[in-house]
What we know:
Layout: E1 24-28, H1 54-66, E2 71-75, H2 85-93, E3 98-103, H3 108-118, E4 122-126, H4 132-139, H5 144-156, E5 162-168, H6 177-187, E6 190-195, H7 206-209, H8 214-222, E7 224-229, E8 236-240, E9 245-249, H9 255-259, E10 263-266, E11 271-273, E12 283-284, H10 286-290, H11 295-307
Parallel strand pairs: 1-2, 1-10, 2-3, 3-4, 4-5, 5-6, 6-9
Antiparallel strand pairs: 7-8, 8-9, 10-11, 11-12
Bound molecules: S-adenosylmethionine and iron/sulfur cluster (SF4).
Amino acid sequence: MPARQTRDEEKPTLVDPHGRSVNSLRVSITQRCNFDCFFCHQEGESGPDGEATPEEIEAIVSVAAELGIGKVKITGGEPLLREDVVEIVRRISSHVGEVSMTTNGYLLAERACELKEAGLDRVNVSFHSGNPDVFCKIIGSDSYPRVREGIATAKDCGLNPVKLNMVVMKGINEEEIPRMIEFAKEVGATLQLIEYQPLEKGVTDWSDYHFDLKPLEEEFEARSSRVVEREMHRRRQYHLVGGGVVEVVRPMHNSDFCMYCTRLRLTSDGDLKPCLMRDDNHVEAVSLLRNGGSRESIKAAFREAVAKREPFWG
Ligand code: SAM
Ligand code: SF4
């Protein structure tokens, strides 16, 4: 495997007009999915227009790395549906210090060890309920045992940490949080509680499902031996007395979340995307490559996308 960039070599050079450094890239590699989660925000993409090739993704990531981006998160759709996902991970990992992936877990058991070998460091598995009936209802697929197996295999293959993404929704799974903390502790995973987020401001049925995680943060703080505040979004990680780690992702109406956002996105069809919540300010990147554009032109696209970054919740 080629030498990896180390943390010390990461020098963020991309800073947006609000003084926010950009040091991570969230790369969607497909919009295809084998599940049908009713709440899915599809990473803010609509209408797929083809997928970038492994070579194109590598070219974009290598430019990002030169601009100081040291971390890449691979997402989708469901990233493991791509036959060439291991090649994509291998190519990305030769340029940046950390590669992670968010997956629905359905195909994880069969690919986790190959992915680790190719340079995947860690994984987030979406696991919204420990109750098989509730889980299958949420994801619209009868896949609970496969996802459980994927979580166990990810641990066995050395992906570390394994995080369980639980989108918390009122009336659906909020009462399960204590049990999910215990489950995550048992399998040696971090539980990541994510607030349900609509794709646009003012969506009317959003409040039907929204469950405010702020009061829970206060409770976790009182129960923790250690609280770690991550740079990204100022997310807090609670190390609970008696074991168990819970991280809380609270984007809604949260100006800190936006003020401490260090991420840019690449859509599955190759545009740079400054914000999950907006689709009116994308900047073309892969199409530049396809038209013979130079590395300098890709760098200019990155700078343009960074210049367009605006805190969504100001
Ligand atoms: N298919 C993969 C998966 O489900 O993990 C990756 C793509 S999915 C869009 C990325 C993450 O966003 C998942 O953890 C998913 O649960 C979460 N997510 C999807 N829609 C959401 C919403 N409306 N609000 C909050 N999180 C959401
Ligand atoms: Fe969306 Fe992921 Fe669910 Fe697929 S598995 S529908 S991409 S949240």
